[in-house]
Amino acid sequence: MSEAMVVEVDPGPFDFGSGRHAVLCLHGLTGTPYEVRPIGEALARAGLRAVGPMLPGHGGPSELLAAILHDVWYEAARDAYRALCEEHEAVSVVGLSLGGLLTLALASEEDVDALVVVGTPLHVHARFVSWIPLLKRWKHAFPKPNGSDIRHPEARDRHPSMNVMPLASVHELMRLQHRVRGVLDRVTAPILVAHGVLDATAKPSDACEIVGKVASEERELLWLPNSGHVVPVDHDGPALADAVTRFLTRKRPPLRYVAG
Q1: Residue 255 lies in a domain
Q2: I want to staple 14 with a disulfide (CB 3.0 to 4.6 A). Which of 52, 115, 152, 171 is the partner?
Q3: Nearest of 28, 146, 158 to residue 95 by alpha carbon
Q4: Is residue 70 part of a domain?
Q5: CA distances for 113 relative to 45, 51, 93, 116, angstroms
Q6: Phi-psi sector, 208: left (phi>0), alpha (psi -120 to 50), beta
Q7: DSSP letter string, 6-32
Q8: Which residue in 198, 191, 208 sits closest to 236, CA to CA?
Q9: pLDDT tens per residue, range 25-73
Q10: CB 13 within 8 A of CB 33
Protein backbone atom coordinates (compact mmCIF):
# COMPACT_ATOMS: atom_id res chain seq x y z
CA MET A 1 0.00 0.00 0.00
CA SER A 2 1.46 3.37 -1.00
CA GLU A 3 2.08 6.21 1.41
CA ALA A 4 -0.48 8.34 -0.46
CA MET A 5 -3.16 5.76 0.37
CA VAL A 6 -2.53 5.64 4.12
CA VAL A 7 -2.05 9.34 4.89
CA GLU A 8 -5.30 10.99 5.94
CA VAL A 9 -6.18 14.20 4.11
CA ASP A 10 -8.44 16.58 6.03
CA PRO A 11 -8.60 20.01 4.36
CA GLY A 12 -10.88 21.51 6.99
CA PRO A 13 -10.15 23.90 9.85
CA PHE A 14 -8.55 22.49 12.99
CA ASP A 15 -8.38 23.27 16.70
CA PHE A 16 -5.83 21.12 18.52
CA GLY A 17 -4.60 21.04 22.10
CA SER A 18 -4.99 23.42 24.98
CA GLY A 19 -2.88 25.52 27.32
CA ARG A 20 -2.00 29.09 28.16
CA HIS A 21 -0.20 29.66 24.87
CA ALA A 22 -2.19 29.58 21.60
CA VAL A 23 -0.90 29.67 18.04
CA LEU A 24 -2.91 30.85 15.04
CA CYS A 25 -1.90 28.88 11.92
CA LEU A 26 -2.66 30.44 8.52
CA HIS A 27 -2.52 28.63 5.17
CA GLY A 28 -1.62 29.81 1.68
CA LEU A 29 -3.46 31.12 -1.37
CA THR A 30 -5.71 28.47 -3.03
CA GLY A 31 -4.79 26.09 -0.20
CA THR A 32 -6.49 24.87 2.96
CA PRO A 33 -5.62 24.45 6.66
CA TYR A 34 -4.24 21.02 5.69
CA GLU A 35 -1.06 22.84 4.62
CA VAL A 36 -0.26 23.92 8.19
CA ARG A 37 -1.91 21.00 10.00
CA PRO A 38 1.40 19.16 10.66
CA ILE A 39 2.71 22.25 12.47
CA GLY A 40 -0.52 22.49 14.45
CA GLU A 41 -0.29 18.84 15.46
CA ALA A 42 3.31 19.26 16.61
CA LEU A 43 2.44 22.36 18.65
CA ALA A 44 -0.45 20.54 20.32
CA ARG A 45 1.84 17.66 21.29
CA ALA A 46 4.12 20.25 22.92
CA GLY A 47 1.30 21.57 25.10
CA LEU A 48 0.11 24.55 23.04
CA ARG A 49 -3.26 25.17 21.46
CA ALA A 50 -3.11 25.37 17.66
CA VAL A 51 -5.98 26.82 15.63
CA GLY A 52 -6.08 26.71 11.82
CA PRO A 53 -9.04 28.52 10.22
CA MET A 54 -10.09 28.39 6.58
CA LEU A 55 -9.36 31.80 5.06
CA PRO A 56 -12.28 33.53 3.26
CA GLY A 57 -12.93 32.31 -0.28
CA HIS A 58 -11.06 29.05 0.22
CA GLY A 59 -12.47 25.55 0.40
CA GLY A 60 -14.92 26.19 -2.45
CA PRO A 61 -14.95 27.11 -6.15
CA SER A 62 -12.29 29.41 -7.55
CA GLU A 63 -14.97 31.96 -8.48
CA LEU A 64 -15.66 32.46 -4.77
CA LEU A 65 -11.99 33.07 -4.02
CA ALA A 66 -11.69 35.50 -6.94
CA ALA A 67 -14.33 37.73 -5.35
CA ILE A 68 -12.42 38.18 -2.07
CA LEU A 69 -10.39 41.33 -1.36
CA HIS A 70 -7.17 41.14 0.61
CA ASP A 71 -8.70 43.26 3.38
CA VAL A 72 -11.19 40.44 3.99
CA TRP A 73 -8.35 37.94 4.46
CA TYR A 74 -6.65 40.28 6.88
CA GLU A 75 -9.81 41.02 8.87
CA ALA A 76 -10.50 37.29 9.23
CA ALA A 77 -6.96 36.67 10.49
CA ARG A 78 -7.15 39.63 12.86
CA ASP A 79 -10.50 38.53 14.26
CA ALA A 80 -9.22 34.99 14.84
CA TYR A 81 -6.11 36.36 16.56
CA ARG A 82 -8.10 38.67 18.82
CA ALA A 83 -10.49 35.87 19.74
CA LEU A 84 -7.52 33.78 20.90
CA CYS A 85 -6.17 36.73 22.88
CA GLU A 86 -9.40 36.80 24.88
CA GLU A 87 -8.83 33.21 25.99
CA HIS A 88 -5.06 32.83 26.27
CA GLU A 89 -2.15 34.46 28.06
CA ALA A 90 0.11 34.31 25.01
CA VAL A 91 -0.75 34.16 21.31
CA SER A 92 1.70 33.59 18.46
CA VAL A 93 1.05 33.32 14.73
CA VAL A 94 2.40 30.95 12.08
CA GLY A 95 1.75 31.61 8.40
CA LEU A 96 2.55 29.91 5.10
CA SER A 97 2.80 32.01 1.91
CA LEU A 98 -0.33 34.21 1.90
CA GLY A 99 -0.65 33.24 5.56
CA GLY A 100 2.88 34.53 6.11
CA LEU A 101 1.97 37.90 4.63
CA LEU A 102 -1.07 38.07 6.90
CA THR A 103 1.13 37.10 9.86
CA LEU A 104 3.54 39.96 9.13
CA ALA A 105 0.65 42.40 8.71
CA LEU A 106 -0.80 41.28 12.04
CA ALA A 107 2.54 41.58 13.80
CA SER A 108 2.92 45.15 12.51
CA GLU A 109 -0.33 46.21 14.17
CA GLU A 110 -1.05 43.76 17.01
CA ASP A 111 0.88 42.67 20.10
CA VAL A 112 1.84 39.29 18.65
CA ASP A 113 4.05 37.35 21.06
CA ALA A 114 6.10 35.60 18.37
CA LEU A 115 5.70 34.77 14.70
CA VAL A 116 6.84 32.25 12.15
CA VAL A 117 6.56 32.83 8.40
CA VAL A 118 7.17 30.08 5.85
CA GLY A 119 7.67 30.54 2.10
CA THR A 120 6.40 34.10 2.27
CA PRO A 121 6.44 36.00 -1.05
CA LEU A 122 7.11 39.72 -0.75
CA HIS A 123 6.97 39.99 -4.55
CA VAL A 124 5.31 38.16 -7.43
CA HIS A 125 8.23 37.06 -9.56
CA ALA A 126 6.54 36.63 -12.93
CA ARG A 127 7.36 38.21 -16.27
CA PHE A 128 3.77 39.31 -16.85
CA VAL A 129 3.21 40.65 -13.32
CA SER A 130 2.55 44.22 -14.47
CA TRP A 131 -0.23 42.94 -16.74
CA ILE A 132 -2.19 41.11 -14.05
CA PRO A 133 -4.55 44.03 -13.23
CA LEU A 134 -5.57 44.03 -16.91
CA LEU A 135 -5.43 40.28 -17.56
CA LYS A 136 -7.87 39.55 -14.74
CA ARG A 137 -10.58 41.43 -16.66
CA TRP A 138 -10.72 38.89 -19.46
CA LYS A 139 -9.12 35.73 -18.06
CA HIS A 140 -10.43 34.23 -14.83
CA ALA A 141 -7.52 31.99 -13.89
CA PHE A 142 -4.40 30.17 -14.96
CA PRO A 143 -4.28 26.39 -14.51
CA LYS A 144 -1.71 24.74 -12.23
CA PRO A 145 -0.80 21.78 -14.45
CA ASN A 146 1.87 20.45 -12.09
CA GLY A 147 -0.17 20.89 -8.94
CA SER A 148 1.20 22.58 -5.84
CA ASP A 149 4.88 23.45 -5.44
CA ILE A 150 5.78 20.34 -3.40
CA ARG A 151 8.83 18.18 -4.18
CA HIS A 152 7.61 15.04 -2.40
CA PRO A 153 5.64 13.24 -5.17
CA GLU A 154 3.09 11.45 -2.97
CA ALA A 155 2.52 14.57 -0.88
CA ARG A 156 1.98 16.59 -4.07
CA ASP A 157 -0.49 14.05 -5.45
CA ARG A 158 -2.68 14.01 -2.36
CA HIS A 159 -2.47 17.72 -1.60
CA PRO A 160 -5.92 19.38 -1.45
CA SER A 161 -5.71 22.64 -3.35
CA MET A 162 -7.44 24.43 -6.21
CA ASN A 163 -6.20 23.35 -9.61
CA VAL A 164 -6.26 26.94 -10.88
CA MET A 165 -4.94 30.28 -9.65
CA PRO A 166 -7.52 33.10 -10.04
CA LEU A 167 -5.86 36.21 -11.46
CA ALA A 168 -8.03 38.48 -9.31
CA SER A 169 -6.64 36.68 -6.25
CA VAL A 170 -3.07 37.17 -7.48
CA HIS A 171 -3.82 40.88 -7.83
CA GLU A 172 -5.11 40.99 -4.25
CA LEU A 173 -1.99 39.15 -3.13
CA MET A 174 0.10 41.83 -4.84
CA ARG A 175 -1.83 44.52 -2.99
CA LEU A 176 -1.19 42.75 0.29
CA GLN A 177 2.51 42.39 -0.57
CA HIS A 178 2.74 46.14 -1.16
CA ARG A 179 1.08 46.76 2.19
CA VAL A 180 3.39 44.37 4.04
CA ARG A 181 6.59 45.69 2.46
CA GLY A 182 5.71 49.11 3.87
CA VAL A 183 5.30 47.92 7.46
CA LEU A 184 8.10 45.40 7.95
CA ASP A 185 9.97 47.84 10.17
CA ARG A 186 7.01 47.82 12.57
CA VAL A 187 7.43 44.11 13.28
CA THR A 188 9.25 43.83 16.60
CA ALA A 189 8.25 40.40 17.97
CA PRO A 190 10.64 37.43 17.85
CA ILE A 191 10.47 35.97 14.35
CA LEU A 192 11.48 32.76 12.62
CA VAL A 193 11.63 32.99 8.81
CA ALA A 194 11.66 29.57 7.10
CA HIS A 195 11.99 28.92 3.39
CA GLY A 196 12.37 25.91 1.11
CA VAL A 197 15.57 26.10 -0.89
CA LEU A 198 13.76 24.54 -3.88
CA ASP A 199 10.81 26.95 -3.67
CA ALA A 200 9.72 27.87 -7.21
CA THR A 201 6.89 30.14 -6.04
CA ALA A 202 8.51 32.53 -3.55
CA LYS A 203 12.16 33.34 -4.08
CA PRO A 204 14.61 32.75 -1.23
CA SER A 205 15.59 36.42 -1.59
CA ASP A 206 12.16 37.28 -0.16
CA ALA A 207 13.06 35.47 3.04
CA CYS A 208 16.33 37.40 3.26
CA GLU A 209 14.44 40.66 2.71
CA ILE A 210 12.06 39.88 5.55
CA VAL A 211 14.89 39.07 7.95
CA GLY A 212 16.76 42.19 6.92
CA LYS A 213 13.87 44.64 7.25
CA VAL A 214 11.92 43.61 10.34
CA ALA A 215 12.80 45.45 13.57
CA SER A 216 12.76 42.31 15.71
CA GLU A 217 15.76 42.02 18.01
CA GLU A 218 15.41 38.25 17.88
CA ARG A 219 15.22 36.88 14.36
CA GLU A 220 16.16 33.56 12.83
CA LEU A 221 16.41 32.32 9.24
CA LEU A 222 15.88 28.62 8.55
CA TRP A 223 16.58 27.05 5.16
CA LEU A 224 14.86 23.76 4.30
CA PRO A 225 17.11 22.11 1.70
CA ASN A 226 14.80 19.47 0.17
CA SER A 227 11.47 21.28 -0.09
CA GLY A 228 9.51 23.52 -2.41
CA HIS A 229 6.94 26.12 -1.43
CA VAL A 230 4.55 24.16 0.79
CA VAL A 231 7.24 23.04 3.24
CA PRO A 232 5.01 21.76 6.08
CA VAL A 233 3.85 18.82 3.92
CA ASP A 234 7.05 18.39 1.90
CA HIS A 235 10.24 16.43 2.61
CA ASP A 236 11.38 18.83 5.33
CA GLY A 237 7.97 19.08 7.00
CA PRO A 238 8.96 17.20 10.18
CA ALA A 239 12.12 19.28 10.60
CA LEU A 240 10.12 22.47 10.12
CA ALA A 241 7.45 21.43 12.63
CA ASP A 242 10.18 20.63 15.16
CA ALA A 243 11.93 23.97 14.60
CA VAL A 244 8.66 25.92 14.92
CA THR A 245 7.77 24.10 18.12
CA ARG A 246 11.19 24.73 19.67
CA PHE A 247 11.10 28.38 18.63
CA LEU A 248 7.65 29.09 20.04
CA THR A 249 7.99 27.09 23.24
CA ARG A 250 11.12 28.97 24.25
CA LYS A 251 9.58 32.31 23.31
CA ARG A 252 6.82 32.27 25.94
CA PRO A 253 6.54 35.93 27.02
CA PRO A 254 5.48 37.40 30.38
CA LEU A 255 1.87 36.36 30.84
CA ARG A 256 -0.82 38.84 29.87
CA TYR A 257 -3.96 39.17 31.97
CA VAL A 258 -6.96 37.34 30.58
CA ALA A 259 -10.37 38.25 31.98
CA GLY A 260 -12.60 35.36 32.90
Answers
A1: no
A2: 52
A3: 28
A4: yes
A5: 20, 16, 8, 11
A6: alpha
A7: HS----S-EEE--SSEEEEEE--TT--
A8: 198
A9: 999 999 999 999 999 999 999 999 999 999 999 999 999 999 999 999 9
A10: yes
Helix (H, G, I), strand (E, B) or coil at 185: helix
Length of the chain: 260
**Measured distance CA(148)–CA(201) in Å, rounded:** 9
Q: Is the residue at 176 inside a domain? A: yes
Q: Which of 196, 209, 190 is nearest to 247 (CA)?
A: 190
- CATH classification at residue 15: 3.40.50.1820
CA atoms of 121 and 127, how far apart (whole Å): 15
Alpha-carbon dihedral angle through residues 78, 236, 33, 181, given to the nearest 10 degrees: 30
pTM of the predicted protein model: 0.91
